[in-house]
Amino acid sequence: MTFRLANLGGRATLVDTTGGCHDLERVGAGRLTSDPMAAIRRPADLAALSASLDPATAECSLEEALAKGVVGPPVPNPRSVFAVGLNYRSHAAESGMELPATPLIFTKFPSCLVGPRHDVALRSQLGDYEIELVVVIGEGGRDIPAEHAWQHVVGVTVGQDVSDRGLQFAAKPPHFDLGKSRDTYGPTGPVMVSTDSFANPDDLALTCSVNGEVRQNDRTSSLIFGVPALIAYLSSILTLQTGDIIFTGTPDGVGAASGSFLKDGDVITSTIEGIGTLVNRCTA
């Protein structure tokens, strides 16, 4: 049973098949709270309530909420935000780097997370874009086998791993964490979608454009280390917890490869099939 979960003004909200928004605490008759982080722990309840939603009782449409700028990141306060570098062969090639033998893991600090229509506040002339599939851990665990990994994912969403390349490479070895964690450098959303919504969650199309020009276009089936491998690897090192999120990597076409860095007024549009679209304007 599928569900789509959004964060409207800090309140967990279910989105029905027509795009209508339903406050979770209301439709759950108080059995579930409005806290988006608490909602992630109740996937069975989210699915059951989603199946019973009446579009006629929606408070608003998701498009209306997006236009008003009240949609926040679907997972607003994760304990950990993991990210993966060089996880597409095409991106490793354009970067002139060898393919990694093991996943190249770094972190984005949770304070960088913003919603799907939030402005990106550039603080550098070397700002870059990177569309990524983001997975959200449901049931946590340690030493999770790859063959069981998707059972530990409560949902997926769209992410932009915005990067300050100047800050990232200001030191040796690079500041991956700082360069990718400036305020507003982690747009996510617009919804978190349950994994059973997809015929094959390992093969989703993703595209990123800047000012309408397509810069990135690939499928998640091109990942070097897919979602099961990433979860197995991370959980072999530490215990994953409910609400942890993983930015899984970006394909080729990033600005650093061509010198096409972000500037004031640019609009980044990031789409993953079956999930939705981020639209983030850059401001100086």
How would the blueprint of this fold be written?
Elements: E1 4-8, E2 11-15, E3 20-23, H1 24-27, H2 36-39, H3 43-51, E4 60-61, H4 62-68, E5 71-72, E6 81-85, H5 89-95, E7 104-107, E8 113-114, E9 120-121, E10 127-128, E11 131-137, E12 153-160, E13 163-164, H6 165-168, H7 176-179, E14 186-193, E15 205-210, E16 213-219, H8 227-235, E17 245-247, H9 255-258, E18 267-272, E19 276-283
Parallel strand pairs: 6-17, 8-14, 9-19
Antiparallel strand pairs: 1-2, 1-5, 1-14, 2-3, 3-4, 6-7, 10-13, 11-12, 11-17, 12-14, 15-16, 15-18, 18-19
Shape: globular
CATH homologous superfamily assignment of the largest domain:
Fumarylacetoacetase-like, C-terminal domain
Q: What structural class is derived from the secondary structure elements?
A: alpha+beta
Main sheet summary: 12 strands, mixed
Compute the number of helices. Answer: 9
Task: Give the overall average pLDDT.
Answer: 97
